[in-house]
Amino acid sequence: MNAQTLATSYLTALEAADLDALLTLFHPDAVVHSPLYGPTPAGDFYPRLLADTGRSSLHLRGVTEGPNLVAIWFRFDWTLPSGAPADFECVDVLELGDDDRIRTLRIFYDTVTARPAFEEETGTSWRG
């Protein structure tokens, strides 16, 4: 799968809250490093994220790639279950294994607006 196809598949599954489609992109031992959730196995991270999402709209800005790496720049219009907005623009860096599935995903964004809304909604966050 090329970088553009992987990025599109990932963002489409995330926006649709399609857990099965998301997890097929990941190696079974994959870890997601998130500013709000901390380092978490992908199989635990995505159910938590989807449970904490009332609505999402994702807007791809760009995709870059290197050896075994794909970076996806996008805007995440994230609404929490209460209806509170927690929008951000971010870059996800995907480290791929030999099977082209995601082994590690590192999420980078400024949490200045998302963290307060998230913590009010959930009561906590990693490093909060």
From TrEMBL:
InterPro entries: NTF2-like_dom_sf, SnoaL-like
Protein name from the UniProt record: Nuclear transport factor 2 family protein
SnoaL-like domain ranges (all copies): 8-103
Gene3D superfamilies for the chain: 3.10.450.50
Organism annotation: Actinomadura barringtoniae
